[in-house]
Design a protein that fits this description.
Elements (H helix, E strand, L loop, with lengths): L6 H13 L7 H29 L14 H26 L16 H11 L10 H35 L3 H35 L3
Helix pairs in contact: 1-5, 3-5, 4-5, 5-6
């Protein structure tokens, strides 16, 4: 008579295997879902950009002496610097293995409720689950390392958006760029908070 493993226990076992660097049986399925989600997001963003390109008013063309204005030059400079920061940061993150694909994340086999519970424990909002302590510590260590690798991308993209804000000549475009910049700033602050919380958690769990 074969015994059926409890689904929750199976999920935690898979998470523990990922924490030890072993691929679990559900990795391929999770990878397919993530890639499908990314493809759908790409198509949706492309369609949204296509629609906005036709919907937004175009700036009036004025006869000028030619050349680039101060605002355009400043915006282009900021965007170029931001692109270089993001590119160099991305290369650094890849070479130093700061990034982790979503389907290989320690918490990826867990249910949404279990992932939220893990984050609450890491952030000190829920008592530590001693039964899965090693897996939760591994998840915190992985997330903190990934957060550090993401920081240069946020900085670079924020500079690029700031460049668009400086050079924007249409009110609607300016508003959209300002909203994007505010969202990037909020995400950056949240990333810093998470990074500090995970650091405090790991320090508390370290022996001695």
């Amino acid at each position: 008579m074969t015994t059926v493993e409890d689904p929750a226990a199976a999920r935690w076992r898979a998470a523990d295997e990922l924490a030890q660097g072993v691929a679990d049986d559900g990795l391929g399925r999770r990878r397919g879902r993530v890639l499908a989600w990314v493809l759908g997001l790409f198509v949706a963003s492309w369609l949204a950009g296509f629609v906005l390109a036709f919907a937004l008013p175009r700036p009036a063309h004025h006869a000028t002496s030619g050349g680039m204005g101060v605002r355009e030059f400043a915006g282009l400079t900021l965007s170029a610097i931001g692109f270089l920061v993001a590119l160099i940061g991305f290369i650094w993150g890849v070479r130093t293995k700061h990034y982790i694909t979503r389907w290989r994340a320690v918490t990826s086999p867990l249910s949404r409720r279990e992932r939220k519970s893990v984050m609450k424990q890491i952030r000190g909002r829920r008592p530590m689950d001693s039964e899965h302590a090693d897996t939760i510590v591994a998840a915190a260590r992985q997330l903190r390392r990934a957060s550090l690798g993401t920081a240069p991308l946020y900085a670079g993209l924020s500079l690029m958006v700031l460049g668009f804000v400086v050079s924007a000549t249409v009110l609607v475009s300016l508003i959209l760029c300002l909203i994007s910049l505010a969202l990037f700033a909020a995400a950056g602050v949240q990333l810093l908070v998470y990074y500090r919380q995970m650091g405090a958690f790991l320090e508390a769990q370290s022996p001695g």
